[in-house]
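Lay summary. Proteins are chains of building blocks that fold into shapes, and those shapes determine what they do. In this project we predict the shape from the chain. Here is one chain we studied, written as its sequence of building blocks.
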Amino acid sequence: MFDNYVFTEGTARNITEDGQVIGFGLDTLITYYRGIPLSMVHDVALTIDDEAVPRGELVISPNDADWFTLAEAETVTTYRWEYGTPLHVRWLRPGGLTPGEHKVKLELKVRVAYIPAPFGGERTRQVTV
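And here is the predicted shape, written in a compact code that computers can read:
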């Protein structure tokens, strides 16, 4: 149902800081009709060319300035991810993705009030880096 919100088209890119490529990033929208505290992001999974990215190498940010590992995000209640605002996802991998075509799959699960199980969506896109 919410798959259309996952993995915003045109956002896949290598991330450069201080002249160095530090990883690969993309954006997603929330799979719910309202905002949630960051601690209610249940899981984010990234697969590149059919290879799962280790969970510990992913970081997320609701504002593209403050970054949290998925383990840290479980305790973050002072930041909210609002409806219509992108959540930035990064794979911290020096050098990022190699230039060319890649199959990228993003899976997202959130917890919300009154729904007993986490839910979300997934989206796979062919991207060119």
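What the prediction tells us: The chain is about 5% helix and 45% strand.
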